[in-house]
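STRUCTURE:
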C-alpha cells in the first residue's frame, strides 16, 4: 500500500513538472494542419490567432509577400521606419509562429527603445553600419556595432534599440518567432506625442555614450 502511494506521488510530481516545463517553453501554439492561411473575411470573430481559409481556396500567393521589398518612409522625427509582415498582412504565416520585418534608418536616424512582448527577434544587417543593444531584467545594457552581414539577437520581451552609425542609409531585416509579436514603445508610453525635447535627449544619450556595455538602464533612460 505504501509503495503504491509513493508511486502515485512520484507520478503526480512528474506530471506537474512536465506541465510546468511545457508552460515555460510555450510560444505560439503549434499548428494542427500543414498550413492555415489567414481568412480576413471573419474579422468579427475574436480568437487567439486568425481563422483559416478554406483549404480548397488556398493558393501559392498566400505564402508569398512583397511587403518588405521597398524601403519604408523615413521622413519623420526619428529618421527611421519599421515595416512588419505578420499573419495579419501575410496570410501564409498564420499558425506558423513566425513574422518578419524590415527596418530602414537614415544617417543619424534611430529606432527608439521598444519591446516585443511575445517574441525573440533576430536582425540581419543588409546594408550600412548599425549599433544595436538591449536591456536585460537586471537593467544592464548589452550593445554592439554591426557591419553589413552582421546578425544580432534581441531576447523575448526585452527593451531594445538601434541607430545608424555609418554614413549611408542602413537596411535591416529581422525574423521574430511569433506571428503576432506585439510592439511596446517606451518613447510613446513615456513621452507621448508632445515630448519632443525628451525624445531628443534620449536619442542623444544613446548615441553619445559610446560603449554602453554594462551601463545601467537608469543612467541611460533615467
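SEQUENCE:
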Amino acid at each position: 500500500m505504501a509503495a503504491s502511494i509513493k508511486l502515485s506521488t512520484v507520478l503526480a510530481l512528474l506530471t506537474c513538472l512536465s506541465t510546468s516545463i511545457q508552460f515555460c517553453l510555450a510560444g505560439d501554439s503549434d499548428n494542427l494542419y500543414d498550413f492555415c492561411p489567414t481568412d480576413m473575411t471573419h474579422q468579427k470573430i475574436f480568437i487567439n490567432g486568425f481563422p483559416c481559409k478554406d483549404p480548397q481556396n488556398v493558393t501559392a500567393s498566400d505564402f508569398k509577400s512583397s511587403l518588405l521589398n521597398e524601403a519604408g518612409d523615413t521622413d519623420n522625427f526619428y529618421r527611421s521606419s519599421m515595416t512588419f509582415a505578420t499573419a495579419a498582412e501575410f496570410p501564409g504565416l498564420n499558425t506558423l509562429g513566425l513574422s518578419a520585418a524590415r527596418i530602414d534608418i537614415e544617417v543619424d536616424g534611430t529606432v527608439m527603445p521598444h519591446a516585443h512582448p511575445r517574441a525573440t527577434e533576430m536582425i540581419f544587417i543588409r546594408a550600412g553600419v548599425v549599433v544595436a543593444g538591449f536591456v536585460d531584467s537586471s537593467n544592464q545594457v548589452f550593445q554592439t556595432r554591426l557591419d553589413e552581414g552582421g546578425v544580432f539577437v534581441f531576447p523575448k520581451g526585452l527593451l531594445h534599440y538601434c541607430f545608424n552609425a555609418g554614413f549611408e542609409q542602413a537596411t535591416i531585416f529581422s525574423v521574430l518567432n511569433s506571428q503576432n509579436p506585439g510592439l511596446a514603445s517606451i518613447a510613446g508610453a513615456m513621452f507621448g506625442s508632445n515630448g519632443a525635447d525628451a525624445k531628443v535627449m534620449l536619442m542623444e544619450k544613446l548615441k553619445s555614450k559610446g560603449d554602453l556595455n554594462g551601463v545601467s538602464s537608469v543612467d541611460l533612460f533615467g
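REMARK: Residues 133 and 143 are 4 Å apart (CA to CA).
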